[in-house]
User: What shape does this take?
Amino acid sequence: MKQKQTIGIIGVGLIGGSFALSLRKKDYSAHFIGWDFNEKESGIALKRGIIDEVVEWEFLCQKSDVIILAIPVTAIVQLLPKVLDLIPENTFVFDVGSTKESICKAVSHHPKRRQFVAAHPIAGTENSGPASAIDHLFEGKLNILCDTADSEKQFVDETKYLFKCIGMETIEMSSTEHDLQLAYVSHLPHVLAYMLAATVLHQEKNEQNILNLAGSGFESTVRLAKSSPDMWTPIFMENKTHVLTAINSYIGNLEVIKNHIEKEDIHQTFSLIEEANKIRRVFNKSEKILTPIN
Amino acid sequence: MKQKQTIGIIGVGLIGGSFALSLRKKDYSAHFIGWDFNEKESGIALKRGIIDEVVEWEFLCQKSDVIILAIPVTAIVQLLPKVLDLIPENTFVFDVGSTKESICKAVSHHPKRRQFVAAHPIAGTENSGPASAIDHLFEGKLNILCDTADSEKQFVDETKYLFKCIGMETIEMSSTEHDLQLAYVSHLPHVLAYMLAATVLHQEKNEQNILNLAGSGFESTVRLAKSSPDMWTPIFMENKTHVLTAINSYIGNLEVIKNHIEKEDIHQTFSLIEEANKIRRVFNKSEKILTPIN
Assistant: This one.
């Protein structure tokens, strides 16, 4: 009789924890073992029934059939080669980091590269830690796999299957393409929200005034500024080149509208806003159209 | 027997329309007459039962007991003096524009200045027009009155009462203070969202990709980019000085984080994000604390 599958989760925070809770919700039969840099957090994960057992990460590597790396991206870059060093030949590892290029590069020459699958489930909230983990975080969202030609097909399929189980469709692209695109639609918005919060907090020392005067528009624009520095500092570092390109192109655009306002150029300002309004079209599309995958 | 009050609404869009609908919902007894630059919109307002009658604006000025100016701010600056010219001595006018300084300045020497009350109910959505008007837009939100010493106390009280009827508390401040503060918590976020939309639409020609790759974070940050150029071009023009100051201070902050990322200064980037995280405190406060007014 085949033994129950063991799933090892390295990093039992919002993403790792929600992954386990989502599989459990679907009655996916597995023994979940977990490890976290922060012992308190693995304790919470155990107590919440996210994992069945807290173990050392080396033990986890040797005993798991599947390993999920759900730690900050710089930590993935550092730990992934060591994880691959330790795993048996039938085990595979996938990460869920928000950048992909430097992670793939870190193991490009590793003898067990084909046992690694680079994933990025596009889901999250501005909260973090196992206390924030929920069992429906991924439902209906999109997962991206990168550079799949470098992974064993069987492991790619098994990874897709796991994401399918928790309600996600998967599309594929190169890690370079991924990092460039995400720099604009995810990493840049985080930079902007952080700096909006910083600007407003610096200008307005009386926080009650911010609350009184700000409409819901401010709350929406600044929402991502609540996101954790533990997660986002590494993302900015690992995707440095594309993030800097995106920030520069954004500052260029700010200078454009600034000049129009300075010159009281009503016509140009109006046109610029009208162009920006086209973003409505994107969100008015009724649903995501997914590139078919096999 | 006292005749039914006549309320004249100049600009029957989202704000003017919602004001009338909100009063009607509270069974406020009045005859609502309206005028709009755009005949089609006044037609919609009539059809939706927002106003009882479409009239010419000059007639509206002569026949109303209360006049609400709910048009773009530059149009308020231009029309308000003419409205005051026409109104009888017991009539008062209040505007609901998002900037206050240039509006107050436009009538500072008008012989009927005391019949004008400068208001800014902080409510709105990214939609506009009478078709978007709703009867609970203002419920639980905050209204600001500016430079009230320049208005007749009786008219200030009556204005507050009308806002109270539609569910708003009122605070008071100077028009200068108002415009400075709003530049940071409202006008700047709009500039940022417009330019985020422009940057992403320019970078990513395939709009389907934006939808597929963007998490809810992008949608939240970019939401205000859907707002109408008819409303926002005038706001940027009327509050030019403060808006430019806010944009410049924001660009300065973007340069700071950019430099930290460029130098891969993990410690400084982390600190900056931690500082920005303090915005959580603002929104965690359970409710708005209102400055008591009489």
Notes: DSSP finds 13 helices and eight strands in chain B. Strands of chain B lie at 5-10, 30-35, 53-54, 66-69, 92-95, 116-122, 142-146, 169-173. Residues 178-284 of chain B form a domain with the 6-phosphogluconate dehydrogenase C-terminal fold fold (CATH 1.10.3660.10).
